[in-house]
Amino acid sequence: MRPSAEPRIRMPVYADGIEDYVAMFRAQPAAPDMAQMRLFGDLGGARFAEGLNPRVRRFDSQIAAAKREIPLRIYDPGGTGARPAICYFHGGGFSLGSIESFDVIGAMLAESTGAVVASVEYRRLPDADYREAQADCDEGFAWLVRQAGTLNIDPDHVVLAGDSAGALLAFTTAANMRDTHGDVPAGLLLFYGTFAMDAGSEDYFASDDPLLTQLRIRQYIALFQRCGGVAHHHAPIDRTDLAGLPPTHIVAAEHDPLRAEAERMGSRLAQAGVQTSLRMAPGMIHGFLRAVAVSAPAREELADAAAAIAPWLHSAEARNA
User: Fold this and answer.
1) How far lies 298's CA from each of 17, 107, 118, 265, 281, in Å?
2) Cα three-residue angle 163-17-41, rounded to 5 degrees
3) I need a surface site. Which of 125, 192, 206, 287 has the fewest CB within 10 A?
4) Residue 1 has what pLDDT?
């Protein structure tokens, strides 16, 4: 009698360049604490842009807010007339990431869309609580609209964008603007967002993402909850007040443990009457936007996202010119 065959383990197939990106990410030195992890992230941020030369002008500024200043970085692609703009919030599990370590995304987003991009340095957990981080994002978007004349941008064509934790912050900023009758963004661009914040989700246990592991997810969610993350609002996927949000484009990644909740978030928004589109990026992992220097498919995904939001950034006359 022949022995039964061993079960075959299916190995994930990543897009070209993604394994190189993972190796770059893992090359960062081990750090004993949060402060050093952040410093290593800033020191090594430039490696994610090696070989790229985005045609944008960068400069840093600060937002004068109540009892604090909020740093931000502006990426200006040039152009004449009132340009469109994007207010962008970086990822990093609410505790890591910065305008420096995510610099390549801001620059490439500005070049690919032709929009002025403002990347906001919101306060991070656990140094601040979630409400303070969200307040910085709300203020960052409101500031960008207020400074439209100075920055030569069109206040009617400002999109909110974010990746991972930044996608949750961008979503909530849009909802807050709607609820306070503020300047509602022209659209939302959400890359592989964390929309459920449920540490017990079965989706996380089947993940084959090499970087966003089950342990990392549990740690991020625990920190989010400990710092008041759902004290004032439900997680985005559990909210029942989705109607009236701006048109939304969601980009998910095939091998991301957050993939399923991105799909559910898209369905929830569409059911609420929000104009919604969803792109599932094949062969991609969580955080793939920072792989644009080593992965041609990652650059293509960014270009596709830019095309998807072009109607919100540019008037019909500008698109047809």
Assistant:
1) 8, 15, 22, 22, 9
2) 50
3) 206
4) 46
**Nearest CA among 310, 305, 308, 307 for reference residue 284:** 305
Q: What is the dihedral of CA 202, 259, 211, 7, to 10 degrees?
A: 60
Reply yes or no on whether the pLDDT at 200 is more than 50. Answer: yes
DSSP 8-state class, residue 212: S
Nearest to 148 by CA among 89, 88, 99, 83: 83
Cα end-to-end span (Å), the chain:
74
Give the model confidence (pLDDT) of 46-84 as tens digits: 999 999 999 999 999 999 999 999 999 999 999 989 999
CB-based contacts of 303: which residues, under 8 Å, 6+ apart? 112
H-helix or E-strand spanning residue 38: helix 34-43
The predicted model scores a pTM of: 0.95
